Every structure is written in C-alpha cells, then in structure tokens.
Records
---
Amino acid sequence: MKHKHRVISFIISFCLLLALASCSSLKKNNQSTFNQSEKLELDENDAPFLKSPKIRKYWQNDRIEGKKFIKGHWIYEIEEQPVWMQQ
C-alpha cells in the first residue's frame, strides 16, 4: 500500500513540475524584441508600422579605474529611436 501511495505522489509531483516548467517557458517565449526586423507590425491591421531602432554594439575591454577592475563587456547604444512609417 505504501508503494502505491509513493508512486501516485511521484506522478502528481512530476505533473505539477512539468506544468510549472511549461508555464515559465511560455513566459520567456512571449517576450518581444523590436530589433529583429526592419518593420514592426502592430496588432491592428490598419495601424502604421514602426521602424526598428538602430543599435550600435561595441566591446569595452577590461580596464582599471582607481581601485575598481571592470571586466570586458558588450555595450549596446541606441543611435536612432524607432519611428512611425507608412507601408
């Protein structure tokens, strides 16, 4: 009887874990990125498009500033803001 109870508890725990994992992956996939395409279409069919912003990416080397060591990292800078455009 104890073995049957353990199996049922394991199955229920596994199903809950699977449901929780699928919810967190859905949340990650629904995030939108606006720099993937030239035109961004809004939800409504008759709405105008947004042109994606221009982003500049550059590498900042390791450096020392006084008592601080700053490890190398990428810097992303917006050069042009998104703008409305006609089709």
Note: The mean pLDDT is 74.
---
Amino acid sequence: MPLVVPSRTLALLLAIVPTLGCKLRATENRRWTPCTCAFVTDYDDPGKITVEVCAEPTQAPAAAQSCAQNAGVGAVTDCACRAPTGPRCGERDTCHDPVTRP
C-alpha cells in the first residue's frame, strides 16, 4: 500500500527541507578573522585596537567596527581585516580579543 501524505504536510516539508541546507551553507564561510580598527578618543587622541571577529570575509570589517565600538575605545573610524586565519566559528560567535581565542 503506498504512503499517502496530506498535501499540507507535503507542502510544509518541501518548504522546510531546502532551508536546512541553506542554513548549513550560510555558516560554512564564517571563520575567525583578525582585524585592526582605528579610533579617536574623547580627547581626539588616535588609537588602534585589534579584534578577531566571526564573520564571512565580506562582512568582517563591519563586524570588527561593531566589536571595537562595543569595547568602548572611542569613535571607531576605520577597520581593516586580513584573510581568515582561524577555524570555523558558529553563528552565535561574534568577536573577542585575539589573545583570548578559545
């Protein structure tokens, strides 16, 4: 006897299953990436901070800017990132000081 699946259930499965593969592929490119950001303090003193971000390569500078800004160093003016050097990272990983990488 053939398996009969209600059309609504089949439509739901067809909508969900392809997105599972997309979710996995979307996080495959996230790697720990070293970045250096320039900032200006409240007293107009220039400075630099090094952070490591978990992001896709094209999104790493923006992620580094957000991370540096959240560190409270001052007004972040620019971030430059090198090629990813670390292992893959998860979708919940954000950034940290490169010395403290787990």
Note: The first strand starts at residue 31 and ends at 40.
---
Amino acid sequence: MTARLAFGPALAAAIEREEEGALLRGLASTAALWFALADFDMALRKEIRATNCTTGIGAAEGATLAAALDLCAVLELCPQGRKALADLDGKPILQQPEGE
C-alpha cells in the first residue's frame, strides 16, 4: 500500500527551508488528512467529542480521529497554529483569545 501524503512537494520544500509557518501548515494538513481518513469533516472539529472516536466507527478510524483531534488541540495553543487551521477551514480568524 502506498502512503498518502498530507501535503505536496512545495510545502515539504518550504518546511525544509524553515519558512515561517510552513511546519504548522504541514501539521494542519496532516490533521486534515487524518479527519478525511476517519470520514469526518475537519470544519466540524469543535463539535466532535471523544464518544465519536469509539461509537459507530471502526477502531482504526476512531484512533485516527482521536489523533487528529489531539493534533488540532496542540495547534490551537499558539496563534500561528490557529491561523494554519483557519487557513485550511477557509475562514479568517475572527478574534484572538485573551492575552494575545
């Protein structure tokens, strides 16, 4: 089986060149791929709960969904990560969390 890449050679090259935000965009793209593999819409990630990872889907899909949720939680900890996720959603960030 051929591995499925979350992003193409242009983003991979940007990460190698250490371009600002490229690594976070790559991680966000990876999360998006994992949501797709689990057959969930990444745009609905804030509505997905842990029970979605264990109820009504296979173990592999549940584990993939849980990993995607965890990766998004890490990305949402910093402004650049939130921007990378928002760029994938196609929606601008409307407000910054308090303290930033």
Note: Residues 91-100 have pLDDT under 50 and may be disordered.
---
Amino acid sequence: MRAGLPSFPELWAARVGELLWPSPSVSVVRPEPVDEHPLIKALRNSGKPLTNGQLAKAIGCSQGQATKYRRKFKGRLIEWRQGRYVFVTLADFDDLPKDSVRKLNGKGRKS
C-alpha cells in the first residue's frame, strides 16, 4: 500500500455509506425551463391543435422544416391524422382525443 491512500475496503465502506445513509443536503429549487423554441411557442400560444401547414405559417418556415421540428420534439407532442391533415398539439393538453375520429365513432380500419 502507498502511504496516504485509503485501502479498497475503506473506499468501499465510504461509498456504501454514502449510498445507504446520504448526508443531509440543501435541496436546490430550480425554475422550470422556459421553452424558447418557435414550435413550442406557436403551439402554446395557439391553444388549439394546428395542422402542419398552420404550424409552418405560425413559425414562419416551410412545411418541410415544420415536419423536421415535429420530429425533433416528438416526445412532447401529440400527432394524429384526420383525412389528409396531420394535427399537432402539445402533450400537456389533457382534453384532446388520443384516438382518431373514426375510432371514437366506432368505425375501425377496414383491412
């Protein structure tokens, strides 16, 4: 053993002790992150679901770029298709339908 270095059992006991009995620490209150991305701002300001074309107009970009933004924030959005339109809204809106209109009306997909 080298002088001044703790042995493996001492290191192990210290690490297990930290895991089992954590030292009391002051919890830091962090503010919620503010979403500054144009896609999130546009959806939050609209307050309703938008089609991809409406979303592109609100952001001020092309429909292709709006689709790329949708893919980037896929986990935070709810997307559904009605006919040829793709509707998009934020996932924190609880009152929006999660199923298609056909499914809600009792009509399943014809296969």
Note: The radius of gyration is 25 Å.
